[in-house]
Amino acid sequence: MLDSTAARSDKERINLIKLAKRLRRGVGEAIQDYNMIEHGDRVLVCLSGGKDSYTMLDILRSLQQSAPVEFELFAVNLDQKQPGFPEHVLPDYLRSIGVPFEIIEQDTYSVVQRVVAEGKTTCSLCSRLRRGILYTYAHTHGFNKIALGHHRDDILETLLLNMFFGGSLKAMPPKLLSDDGRNVVIRPLAYCKEKDIERYAQAKAFPIIPCNLCGSQPNLQRQVVGDMLRDWDKRFPGRLETMFSALKNVAPSQLADTALFDFTSLGASSAPRRDWLVPARDAADTAEVPETPSASGSADAAVRYFRGVRIAQG
Ligand code: SF4
């Protein structure tokens, strides 16, 4: 009995070592591929108290110890004043591991409750406010990089949501310049699978703060898409890896965006004329006129109108 328990804990230990190595490799590759961290960088690591941001900080710290370059890691958490937020959890943890930090206190919870209509999802406004506060903090305190804990599965979810509901082919980049140009945001977990992060956070017993304290309904569509991805992952192993590879292997000439690829010049001898192909839009564009019978009343010789253009048939 004792032997089998010892064997199991040995196996668990080995699995944890392998898992940590896999995560470190993923983070290392992402940092390298996107040149996320350089010598002298001051990195503001945003912690929410969830599994992703704890894992990100943990892996970044371990890479920092063996990195040939020097960079600073500083943790920050925004206490948004949700009822029941356990204020002591993050400070206790960060002190115990010796990471410098600051807890910013701003009551965005009340703002969101006041502004968003009852029954509507509050996450989008809440995240926007949080982002603004963290970006401003980074700028005023001289941090040149902001690290966020989004992982591979978040990126794929965003890709599908944008395709299904946003009409655009875009996801969440591993590195980006904020809209106001003041901050460089990095996502060191961009190559890491959520299920690895979940297992790692469990094994390391991070003091997770539940994310439903605000009482908000999670974004339903994101949840649906997340479930779909998890289901695919179970039924078709390797599919998510392939999908993520697709994000790194884009062929603009095989898509349809004329701003990304010059389709008009392909095989063309002169500049395209549009007047004979695309009639000017008018009110008739908005509705298709129903079939109009011909003068003889014969359906075979019907005349159709489409977007204001008369089309004879039969
Ligand atoms: S779950 Fe609550 S705290 Fe989290 S983003 Fe949504 S509204 Fe904000």
Describe the fold and architecture.
The protein has 314 residues and is an alpha/beta fold. 43% of the residues lie in helices and 11% in strands. The protein has nine helices and eight strands. The protein has a six-stranded mixed β-sheet with strand order 3-2-1-4-6-5, with helices on both faces. A two-stranded antiparallel ribbon has the order 7-8. The relative contact order is 0.12. Residues 292-314 have low confidence and may be disordered. Residues 122-123, 126-127, 211, 214, 216 line the site of iron/sulfur cluster.
Total number of distinct structural domains: 2
Bound molecules: iron/sulfur cluster
Into which percent range does the helicity of residues fall?
40-55%
Radius of gyration: 27 Å
Q: Order of SSEs, N→C?
A: HEHEHEHHEHEEHHHEE
Question: Looking at the structure, what is the overall shape?
Answer: globular
CATH superfamily of the largest domain: HUPs
* Average pLDDT figure: 88
- Number of separate strands: 8
What structural category characterises the helix and strand content?
Answer: alpha/beta
Using the coordinates shown, work out and report the CATH topology of the largest domain.
Answer: Rossmann fold
Strand order of the largest sheet: 3-2-1-4-6-5
Q: What can be said about the biggest beta sheet? A: 6 strands, mixed
Keywords: 4Fe-4S, ATP-binding, Cytoplasm, Iron, Iron-sulfur, Magnesium, Metal-binding, Nucleotide-binding, RNA-binding, Transferase, tRNA processing, tRNA-binding
Cofactor: [4Fe-4S] cluster; Mg(2+)
GO molecular function: 4 iron, 4 sulfur cluster binding; ATP binding; magnesium ion binding; sulfurtransferase activity; tRNA binding
Catalytic activity: cytidine(32) in tRNA + S-sulfanyl-L-cysteinyl-[cysteine desulfurase] + AH2 + ATP = 2-thiocytidine(32) in tRNA + L-cysteinyl-[cysteine desulfurase] + A + AMP + diphosphate + H(+)
